[in-house]
């Protein structure tokens, strides 16, 4: 099954690489503000689905662009596909994007492929058998302190995203790290955690196809992944936190209070802290006010 997924990912990657040679000619449409889809997404997805269903016609499909309209509807085997994670990067010629394919068996991720076509980097994992980059075994980093760690994230970009809440999370995390990065493709962010390139990752608003394959890469490489409160059942929850075990634990202690699953006490404490911060920004000059995010508390998650 992993070999079939690799074949599908490489077929999609070939389509993406051909289109990248003349990215300005690619037709683009908008699903909603700042959420783009291209003809390349659709062609890549079709190539993946065709490859998978040719080999396994009885399997189900859950894909970003076509949902579950292909494949068997009641199969215990479901392929979860993001044909081009990082579409916004792709249409700008910014070479950080990937194909993500995972196989869920009775609700558990058992096979994973994340393929970066611009670098020809193939990340793979099979449950219980480890994670690999181009057939070389990979492990999460060994860093133990957040101050020495590189942490990746994803900025909110859709209408309705809680931008102020994210700014507070970033302000809590950034000063404690060696650096915060926003590459723009969550599947690759998780693959980079597995390879030890980054030590931690957090993001809200992600869908299952963004994180399914990456989640298995992380755990098979010795890392941990869950929601902001550290619970492992996160795939459909819209928030994701990952890292090597030590950094993961430190990020949970910082970000847990921002989770929609935080306790009532934690949420109340966060609101109180926000209210305390608010008066400090009142005397800002007109110029400062233009660039300083409002500290007015938003509604909780």
Automatic annotation (TrEMBL):
NADP listed as a keyword: no
Keyword terms of this UniProt record: Hydrolase, Magnesium, Metal-binding
Highest taxon, organism lineage: Bacteria
Protein name, entry field: Inositol-1-monophosphatase
Protein's GO biological process: inositol metabolic process; phosphatidylinositol phosphate biosynthetic process; signal transduction
PROSITE patterns attached to this UniProt entry: IMP_1 (PS00629), IMP_2 (PS00630)
Family per record: Belongs to the inositol monophosphatase superfamily.
Species this chain originates from: Giesbergeria anulus
Binding of Mg(2+), residues: 64, 82, 84-85, 210
EC top class named in words: hydrolase
GO molecular function (one): metal ion binding
Keyword Lyase: no
SUPFAM superfamilies the record matches: Carbohydrate phosphatase (SSF56655)
UniProt region (Disordered), positions on chain: 269-301
Low complexity: bias regions: 272-301
Cofactors required: Mg(2+)
Protein EC: 3.1.3.25
Catalyzed reactions: a myo-inositol phosphate + H2O = myo-inositol + phosphate
Gene3D superfamilies linked: 3.40.190.80, Fructose-1,6-Bisphosphatase, subunit A, domain 1
InterPro entries from the UniProt entry: IMPase, Inositol_monoP_metal-BS, Inositol_monophosphatase-like, Inositol_monophosphatase_CS, Inositol_monophosphatase_SuhB
């Amino acid at each position: 099954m992993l070999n079939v997924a690799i074949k599908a990912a490489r077929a999609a990657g070939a389509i993406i690489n051909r289109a990248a040679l003349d990215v300005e000619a690619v037709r683009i449409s908008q699903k909603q503000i700042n959420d783009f889809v291209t003809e390349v997404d659709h062609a890549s997805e079709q190539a993946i689905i065709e490859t998978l269903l040719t080999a396994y016609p009885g399997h189900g499909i859950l894909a970003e662009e076509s949902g579950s309209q292909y494949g068997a509807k009641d199969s215990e085997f479901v392929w979860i596909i993001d044909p081009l994670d990082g579409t916004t990067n792709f249409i700008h010629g910014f070479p950080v994007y990937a194909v993500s394919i995972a196989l869920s068996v009775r609700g558990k991720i058992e096979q994973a492929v994340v393929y970066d076509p611009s670098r020809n980097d193939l990340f793979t994992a099979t449950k219980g058998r480890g994670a690999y980059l181009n057939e070389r075994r990979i492990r999460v980093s060994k860093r133990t302190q957040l101050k020495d760690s590189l942490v990746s994230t994803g900025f909110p970009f859709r209408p309705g995203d809680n931008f102020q809440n994210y700014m507070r999370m970033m302000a809590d995390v950034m000063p404690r790290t060696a650096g915060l990065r926003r590459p723009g493709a969550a599947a690759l962010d998780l693959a980079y955690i597995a390879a030890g390139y980054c030590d931690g990752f957090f993001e809200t608003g992600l869908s299952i196809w963004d994180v399914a394959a990456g989640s298995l890469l992380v755990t098979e490489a010795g890392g941990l992944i869950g929601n902001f409160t550290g619970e492992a059942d996160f795939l459909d929850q819209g928030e994701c936190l990952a890292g090597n075990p030590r950094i993961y634990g430190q990020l949970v202690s910082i970000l847990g209070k921002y989770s929609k699953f935080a306790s009532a006490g934690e949420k109340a404490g966060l609101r109180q802290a926000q209210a305390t911060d608010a008066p400090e920004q009142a005397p800002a000059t007109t110029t400062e006010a233009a660039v300083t995010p409002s500290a007015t508390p938003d509604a909780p998650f």
